[in-house]
């Protein structure tokens, strides 16, 4: 178990499960440590600081696609409840809400039913969910804490990240931040043999099962608070049993770990002794009267420090991308089989736009660093194969200026197409504005006529006239035309950006080729931009001005 919480946050972004949990006596500052104070920005707790750090790290890697999901589980009286459930606002008693049930699959993994997962796109969205969950959390007044948390809460950030370039590997990780409810102590006096008063500290879990009602009465815990304290201390007692068992597993080879004794230990199964990097925050009271409880907390922290977890990277293969790659591989094998069998057809002559698309695919194939890249030319034919080989040959042995000239002509053609599309889109947008204004004027005139009319025949409100229906139909038609043109314009924009990149690459290649030729003449080092501008070849001057 690591001692640096920031290390756990970075590990969660890298695909490792991580957990931070606070343990200690009631009133010792666990909730303040985990969630922070509500008055000052400097009093932020671990959760808001972690969220800020997570989204800050996500912005540092724009090439990595990362999705974050938030869930907030409350374990109250050994029953699970969703703190982000919308029914919280309309329910007075928490026990009337749907309970979160726990299921275990054949591999021993726990799954929570009725626990909602909310996707968040920013730090603000995540903090809003945290505030909503904290508002719904159960608190009560005790003798040691006026706003004591009466439940265990687990705030979970689930991360899914994928590296750039369409990688099929997905990293999945979970960051649990746990605020455990504080254990409550009973202090009562009993005479020793010397009739002296001696103070004994007894956990209320033992009071619930062994102590008499008279001793429970002396604690000041009655009714609902006593019942809550019983469940809290019982679950913390089971947590300590799990920690002891895990330590004995490492030292004495113990096989059975009692995770199923309580819901909390079952949910935190991986965090305590499995695939997780875990940090424990021990909170102790500075009061002299609470020295025994502080020592008990420190002893528990020592036991936790002896537990060893085996954390590993959580990698999965995206089935959608894998299926797409397998389909492309099948197409390539089918094409190869057609060539080997001699089933390839001659094919018809291609049109100019088809040649442009094929040339673009060849350039993308040549610039793809992937050794297993596939040139997808559609339905294979000898005509397409000859064209592709011709494009490749021109790229390898042809003149760079010719390639630049061709790309420039292609770029000009696409610019002209984009201008025409933009004019169509603007015309549709202006028509929509004019028709909308016309509709508003028609409705205004209709409303005025209905108000000032004095005869018995009044204009019925809500009746759509033929003119209005015609205008609505025209608006819908222009909206469809606008949407189609806008989508085509976006696609064309991507193609223009790609051709511009090809032009830049061709310009650099032309500089490199000319520099190599000049060096081959034995004339020393060349400042490319200066000498290329002096050439009397018009195409070179044109390319250098791009």
From TrEMBL:
Binding site for ATP: 24-31
Pfam family, one: KIF9
Annotated Kinesin motor domain residues: 1-307
SMART domains on file: KISc
Any one of the GO BP annotations: microtubule-based movement
Domain of life: Eukaryota
Protein name per the record: Kinesin motor domain-containing protein
MF (Gene Ontology): ATP binding; microtubule binding; microtubule motor activity
Membership in a protein family: Belongs to the TRAFAC class myosin-kinesin ATPase superfamily. Kinesin family.
Coiled coil start-end: 418-445
Keywords: ATP-binding, Coiled coil, Motor protein, Nucleotide-binding
